[in-house]
Specification:
Layout (H helix, E strand, L loop, with lengths): L1 E5 L26 E6 L2 H7 L8 H11 L4 E6 L2 H9 L4 E6 L3 H4 L3 E2 L4 E4 L2 E5 L11 E2 L2 E2 L1 H7 L5 E4 L6 H8 L6 E4 L4 H10 L5 E4 L1 H6 L6 E4 L7 E8 L3 H19 L2 H7 L7 H13 L4
Parallel strand pairs: 2-3, 2-4, 10-11
Antiparallel strand pairs: 1-3, 4-14, 5-14, 6-14, 7-12, 7-13, 8-9
Helix pairs in contact: 1-2
Length: 292
Amino acid sequence: MKCITVNIMAIIISTVSCLTYLPAASASSESITVNIHTDNLNDFLGITNQAHNSALSVTTNQLLFANLAIKLNFNYMTTQRSTTQMDEGENICLIDRIKTPLRASKYLFSLPVNLYLSRRFYQNIHAPVINDPELLIDGALDLLAFFKKYPDKKLLLSHKISYGNALDNLLANLPDKNKTYRRGAAHETAIVDMLVFERVNYTLLYPQQISEQNIKTPLRSYEIAGIPPFVAGRLMCTNSAEMQLFIEKVNQTLKRLYDNKILFNAHLTFIPDEYADVLAKYFHQATTETMF
């Protein structure tokens, strides 16, 4: 386990240097130390400025931490070990956790720190546009109906990964004849390349993948009916009175970052331009509706 103690106010955040730095509250009343954990080595190295990493998770969490007048320690370790320590009452928060009813019954959650658009149904630009109203539900593609209408078509998937509960359930009901798999190392990168070079017509990708791989080839995509259109990453923290006060300060800071558009603008760097309006819609929804 690797641990670094950092006075977060002294961190130089190179990945967000072009964004406004918000003044934080006075640190005089802050006596606790909070341990920030992640099981993602790249995120750990990026957030602690040991390596350049311009990922969305790094940029958004750095923005948050730089505006908290609280001493933070950063730790890289497995989620299982982290949650064991949380259950023992240590002051710990995990980054980029999805809030579920089960988790919310055990831990405290912040407001959303970052938002990821869900996987979409991608097709290469030379495949026919999907505009049949029988296949679209409020503009989102009915995946099962599409392959029922076109039983000879195939969907390229990554081998032995989860696409999330809702999408996994949809794929389980898709006939095997309509599914083909990419195996081996770097399968996600390879799938994008196969779509770009038109070796396949259809696959499921995150918009962020297109941006991260700097894909310039035009592609067409559709939301998938029956799955959430986005997921929100939050801090998930030990459930204690002390950490409740910490979460309240985190949420106050996040609300300032929402109001000043700083957090939203940071997100725009990580998606293709054509998704800006979609992101704006769901970012507003995620950061204003009480259900989130």
